[in-house]
C-alpha cells in the first residue's frame, strides 16, 4: 500500500490504519513487492525538511493538480519546474486546462518524487507573464527544464507557486510529523 | 521539459511548442539531464496500447487527482490500485478528502508511471462498499497492494474507476496520437 491511503485518511477524519504497509522504498523503479516487509524507521523532522529541500532542488518534473474552472473537474499533468529556494516556477499554455486552472485562483496541489517517497505541496499561484519575469529567472528555468516558454510559438505563461503547506512521507510510519511546512514556514529552520 | 507543457497546451488551444524537449527516458530514477538530447522515435499506437496495458498490470501506485467537494480545491494523493483488465480499483478512507472527492461524482484523473512516460486516465467512479465487493476482488487487491481495507480499523471504501479516456506519451514527439482509449474503447484492439 502507499501511505497515501493512510495519510489521506487522516486528511478527513484522522481515521488511519496502522496495519498493512509494504516495505519502505525510495526507489520508484523497484516495485514495493521486492523490498523487505518492514519499512526503515521514520526520519526526523529536520531530516525530512532537508530531504524535501533537496528534492525540490534536484527534481525537474512534478505532478500538477488543478481544478478545471470551466467544469470543476480535477485535472492533472506533469510539468517541469524550477525551485528558487522559496517558490516553484511553472509554465504552461495560457489557455490550457492547467493554465486556466492555475490562473483561476483555485489553488494548486503538486506532487513530487516517488509514490513511496512523496513531497506534496499546497500553495497559492501568482500568474507571471513572460515579459514580467526577470530575464535571469527565465534563463534559469530554460536551463533547468530544457524548455524556454519565452521562445515558444504558443501563448505560454509562467506561474509562481508559493507553498503554504508541504508534506513529506514515505511509508505509514512517517504519517506522524509529515508536515514539513505550515502556513508558509518550514517547521524546522535550517537557517 | 516534460511533454506535459506541450500536451497540456494542446488541451486548451492546440498551441504546442515543438522546440526544446529533453531526451526520452522510461526510467524515472534517471534525471532527464543524463540522457541524450534527442528522444527515441514515437511509438506506434498499437505499441502504446500494449505499453499502457502493461503499465496498468505492473504498477501498484498511482497519483489520484480529485476535486474537494467542500471547497472545489484540487486534491492529489498517491494511492495503490488493482487493475482487472478493464477498471482500476482504489480504496481510501470514506471521509478523507480523496474519498469524498471520488464519491462526489466529479470524476477523477489518474496519473501513472513516470513524468516522461506518462499514462493519464480520465474516468468515472463507482463507489463500492467493502461488503459489496466480491471477496476474490478484495483478496486480489490486498495481495497486490499489501493493504486490505476490509480489515482496516478506519472506515474505508473501494472505488472502481471506469476509464473513459486514456492518454500515453513520453516526450513531445509522442503528443500526436497520445490517445490510446477514447469513449471507453482502446483505439487499437489487441483482441
Short recap of the structure:
Chain A is α+β, with helices and mostly antiparallel strands and 191 residues long.
Describe the structure.
Two copies of one chain form a homodimer. Chain A is α+β, with helices and mostly antiparallel strands and 191 residues long. Helices cover 22% and strands 32% of the residues of chain A. Chain A has helices at residues 3-12, 45-58, 97-103, 135-145, and strands spanning 61-67, 74-80, 82-83, 88-93, 108-114, 117-128, 156-169, 179-182, 185-186. In chain A, strands 1, 2, 3, 4, 5, 6, 7, 8 and 9 form a nine-stranded antiparallel beta sheet that branches. In chain A, strand 3 (82-83) and strand 4 form a beta hairpin. Chain A is globular. The N and C termini of chain A lie far apart (36 Å). At the A-B interface, helix 1, strand 1, strand 2, strand 4 and helix 3 of A face helix 1, strand 1, strand 2, strand 3 and helix 3 of B.
What form of chain A results from the Cα inertia axes?
globular
Order of helices and strands of chain A: HHEEEEHEEHEEE
Radius of gyration of chain A: 17 Å
User: Beta fraction of the residues of chain A?
Assistant: 25-35%
> Pairing-aware structural class of the strands and helices of chain A?
alpha+beta
What's the rounded overall pLDDT mean of chain A? 84
Poorly predicted sequence stretches spanning 5 or more consecutive residues of chain A: 6-36
Instruction: Count up the helices of chain A.
Output: 4
Question: Secondary structure elements and their pairing?
Answer:
The structure is a homodimer of 191-residue chains.
Chain A: H1 3-12, H2 45-58, E1 61-67, E2 74-80, E3 82-83, E4 88-93, H3 97-103, E5 108-114, E6 117-128, H4 135-145, E7 156-169, E8 179-182, E9 185-186
Antiparallel strand pairs in A: 1-2, 1-5, 3-4, 4-7, 5-6, 6-7, 7-8, 8-9
